[in-house]
Amino acid sequence: MGERHFWEDHHARRRMIYPAEEVVRLLAYAFPDEKSRRGRRALDVGAGSGRHTVLLGRWGFRAYAVDYALRAVLNVRTFLAEEGLEGRVACGAMDRLPFRDSVFDVVLPWESIFYGDEAAVARAVAEVRRVLAPGGLCFANLRSPGDSHVAESEALGPNVYLNRGEWDGLTFTVYDEEAARRLFAEGFELVWFDRYVVTRRNETARDAGWMLLVRKK
Ligand SMILES: C[S@@+](CC[C@H](N)C(=O)[O-])C[C@H]1O[C@@H](n2cnc3c(N)ncnc32)[C@H](O)[C@@H]1O
């Protein structure tokens, strides 16, 4: 089963409603009041169920979303409509974003940019930079080697893994601290860099990685 087909099937069965706490924290830090957000263009990359697209819309951003799974695109549109929010939702790949250069004030590739091998992730980062306006902000997270998805995966290289567990068939890349900082070194200024560790399912699973807020130079 191809990776996109995995996500088509996933989004036909599952829906996430609530935004990630880290996204709320970072967005609230960078845009503390309604005036700072109103009318700014914000793109949710690999939007999934659209929980962050809806957050962006609720907070006054002009919300945009992109995902390569058609099912996700339809779900995000439905979610926005249920909430009475407007937004533009496109079907497309994150390493070839279907948007013009320098059009977004915010790009949010949360829980998405690390999918694929190192070259694919680097292409996605370059695309994020391309579509951001100068001074625009990117909020992203990267998995670190301590994330428990690594333990259920087959190593394809020193930092690249193929999941053989619940997320069977998905390729992802992990980053130690230095590599995480390096990934966004070119053409960005680092505004915020933090580690996160969250345990789930009675501590049988552990999400571990880096949360970054970077500004396009
Ligand atoms: C774990 S989900 C995260 C969804 C959402 N960002 C969130 O935080 O709830 C990853 C999403 O990325 C999308 N995705 C994975 N690889 C992609 C790619 N190369 N291009 C576009 N979307 C991709 C999947 O379809 C899926 O919806």
Short description:
Helices cover 31% and strands 31% of the residues. With 217 residues, it is an alpha/beta fold.
How are the elements arranged and paired?
Layout: H1 3-13, H2 21-30, H3 34-37, E1 41-45, H4 51-58, E2 62-67, H5 70-82, E3 88-91, E4 104-108, H6 118-131, E5 132-143, E6 153-155, E7 160-163, E8 171-173, H7 177-183, E9 188-200, E10 205-216
Parallel strand pairs: 1-2, 1-4, 2-3, 4-5
Antiparallel strand pairs: 5-10, 6-7, 7-8, 9-10
Bound molecules: S-adenosylmethionine.
Give an overview in words.
By secondary structure, the protein is an alpha/beta fold. The protein has one domain (3-216): Rossmann fold. Helices cover 31% and strands 31% of the residues. It has seven helices and ten strands. The protein has helices at residues 3-13, 21-30, 34-37, 51-58, 70-82, 118-131, 177-183, and strands at residues 41-45, 62-67, 88-91, 104-108, 132-143, 153-155, 160-163, 171-173, 188-200, 205-216. A seven-stranded mixed β-sheet has the order 3-2-1-4-5-10-9, with helices on both faces. Strands 6-7-8 form a three-stranded antiparallel β-sheet, with no helix packed on it. α1 runs parallel beside α5. The model has no long low-confidence stretch (mean pLDDT 97).
